[in-house]
């Protein structure tokens, strides 16, 4: 496990997530919060879909980006905040079923830059399927 | 201008956009539809934001991905549909103001693969600012 | 392990690699070839570096792209060839030491599109360090 | 035109390019150097190709990455250096002909992060064709 930058990282991550209004709007839930690893679950909703009734790539990207951002924040000092610099996401299979879960992990924790990967799986009953894969870059930001 | 794959491309793009429930949910509007170029506008809404009150990167990605997808679809044959294979997006400035507009253009139209770029600007009164840049890959898909 | 598309996949991958003149030029060596997994090693050479004496990002990308391409090819039918559609690579640490090794794995093997990830490590004596991470999209191609 | 961070930016860019041994090894030449815009030309060489005799994606990425890096450096203060954080490149057509030219432009010049796009064209006689498109993130770095 990577070393958190602040012993209260979990509370800090959960508090910040609660202020991301988009996550509330789409019904996303923060699940696992460990140092360098964060999972977010999104129950399937028809109002978040594209033209074929699958979750829209933007919906998937939103959940994966928040998971990456909070995985990064979990390793940052207490006075830092996280900014998404960029991400890339591949859509691997139609996102349908009961829910999706984005599982993000920090693969490089620098002083300024953190790099994360996220796997997004769809859950249907007890089955899991990989539906998207993200690789993104997060920045450690300090209020001026 | 690139050659559309179907004279009715604009009607086809507008009909497909109308079935993307996510676009309705977030209040996005399809504006320009030309062969290989599509613009989508999203008025700012607080319920689509991240922890600092700016539009969430996932919100921006959703609008830019739909713009890229429909720019690609505008060049496809009448019986084809579009799938997002992957995209990469850089966040360049906080997305705030009255609205954002994603302007997508096809830079390579192949028989199977189309590659697009989108610039996303924020609009505040009469000012425009570049807030994100996407480059993505779309696939020409035929129902089996 | 994923199922190879051709029992002779290893011979086919090794024969194709031998025809990539860039790999010969830079001194890259094909190591592990399994179904869906390929490793390529590049001994450090000063003539492949950037302005600080570390391996150039393009050198790293070349090795990781070939590893991804051949991981994908290992799963394709005997009459198919592989094309790189796109890749994204993050530089995580300076690439120095004795050698780098790119380890690629297919994360989604479709009929037309394969998606791969590669981790690139630097080797210094017995130490390994992650220096780059790639995610890319490969296409199954048939000669016309 | 963007404002250079140093009046001697062109000399600084040309001096740094001359120390990138990979560029010498592959025969790449620095052409245009303006504030925020850099072109690099690579004459075609068979020893830089992949299995079909076209320039390898890694060769193309190397040239485009250096062009992006130096476009970014041209806007940085005199005591700064440039690091590639990440890039994404789409291959659009086979890279063959007399030469390729990568034309990079900075689309966002921040204090710490610069974002660039590069178009790579192949030149055959008087014809140009777009063969690759890059979008990448460069960092302003100061020696410790």
Structure, described:
Four copies of one chain form a homotetramer. Chain A has 144 residues and is of the alpha+beta class. Chain A has helices at 9-18, 21-26, 57-73, and strands at 29-34, 37-43, 81-91, 99-109, 113-124, 127-141. Chain A has a six-stranded antiparallel sheet with strand order 1-2-4-5-6-3. The first copy, chain A, is elongated and about 45 Å long. Chain A binds chain B through residues 16-17, 19-22, 24-25, 46-52, 56-59, 61-63, 65-66, 81, 83-91, and chain B through 16-17, 19-22, 24-25, 46-52, 56-59, 61-63, 65-66, 81, 83-91.
SSE diagram, text form:
Four copies of one chain form a homotetramer.
Chain A: H1 9-18, H2 21-26, E1 29-34, E2 37-43, H3 57-73, E3 81-91, E4 99-109, E5 113-124, E6 127-141
Antiparallel strand pairs in A: 1-2, 2-4, 3-6, 4-5, 5-6
Keyphrases for this structure?
43% strand, homotetramer, 23% helix, 3 helices, 6 strands, alpha+beta
Residue-averaged pLDDT of chain A: 96
First-last Cα distance of chain A: 31 Å
Strand residue percentage of chain A: 35-45%
Largest sheet of chain A: 6 strands, antiparallel
Greatest interface by residues involved: A-B, 34 and 34 residues
Task: Characterize this entry briefly.
4 copies of one chain form a homotetramer. By secondary structure, chain A is an alpha+beta fold.
